[in-house]
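Dear support,

I submitted the protein below through the web form. The confirmation email said the job was done, but the results page showed an empty box. After a refresh the structure appeared. I'm attaching both so you can tell me whether what I see now is the final result or a partial one.
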Amino acid sequence: MALRFDHQITFSSWLNQGLLDPEHKLLKLAEVIDWEGVHDKLSPFYSKLGRQALPLRLMTGLHLLKHMEDLSDAQCTDRVRGDLYWMHFCGVEVDALKNKYAHLNSSSMTKFRNRVGDKGWAAVEEVIREYLMQTKRINPSVMATDSSCMEKNVEYPTDSGLLNKGRENLLKSMKKLKGLGVKAVKGVRTYSQRSKQVLITIMKLGKDRADRIQAGTLELSRHAVHVLGKCGEMVKNAEKTLKHGALGLVDSPALQAEISHFKRQMKLVKQVIHQSRERFKGNHVHNKIYSLHEPQVIVIRKGKRARQNEYGAKFNISIDRNGYIVSHEHYSSNKSDHKLLDPALKNWVEKTGRLPRQLNADRGYGQKVRSIPRRVKRLKRVCIPSLGKTKHPDAEKRWFKKGQAMRAGIEAVIGHLKQDHRLDRCRYSGSRGDRINLSLGSLAWNLNKLGRALA
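What the results page shows now:
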């Protein structure tokens, strides 16, 4: 279980207190955040057995500061050793970082993030939200909502690139299985040199490039098919080795895990081969693969002129009248905005305990008369422009115009989340990583806003 320390003032900390500005936002935030509540929420993720972990306040504080300042894990672990305000916010001292917690590094943050997961950061959000509700900084009577795309850290997807990468991944997995004691398969051709030549031919410009892309992609698919056939034989050999117990008890779990990973890679490469061949036949394929290491990535078209397609996940955020993020939702599919309205209202009620008196959203959230959810019907004021050219009956009223002005403000919130709080590109793996990034970005926005109000 994570340690809980009673903070004792040392001589060095007493000296440093005279150097700090008491009105600094980090000192103000450190006073108002319920660190005991955060500890109680996150301590169930730890076991009572094993080596004592790094303090929960230190690890939680570093992640909050990381997204508040838009830094990497390595930059955070370096800066906390030289910034007195960061030390005070994280509840540690210089001596402890030099001696007791000298092993703190970027991998410590990665392990903590994976241990706590999206549920843990949702619990931290709950603690901060309770304070904002108690101090009446969040006004739950007015709600504005909007959606956007959070791109994943993947390169631009092309069938030729995916086929080449998939072939390389399969060959690497075969090499790992061989290193674990599995009998190698004979007659495996790697196509390493030929694939490079094909890719260079595809990338060259010229009027016949479309034909070269088609011919090169189909050739790369044939390379992948050959390697896939040999992979099937390798899997059989690996399963025989595992079944007959040729390896020791220490190596068997590693072999089993590698076989499972190998099978997943084979399945993904088969999907890429299928979609690349169907594309040149003129057939549309649903649920395409856009990344081999992030297969859950979807393509989202938001109608932007500069960037028509974005590859990642969709999220929806809801703010109150004062601009604090009250709730958010993550989606692994490109749902239409009008389908996001009812889940957003449901989440708002769970977080605040009541329906808003007024809802502000853009035209995309407009509902047809027959399909309006019950929660929307119960609202006193719905500030959503009508679909089509007909104006809303209340379009000229003062409250409607103010509601639309507030709705426009959420665009600035989304812009700051992407530019300042790392929501422009999610670098955490999987859908779970998307939810973690969204929670940390929302926490960073709310704490920055609260810090400016307190300082």
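Response: this is the final, complete result; the empty box was a page-load delay. The longest helix spans residues 209-243.
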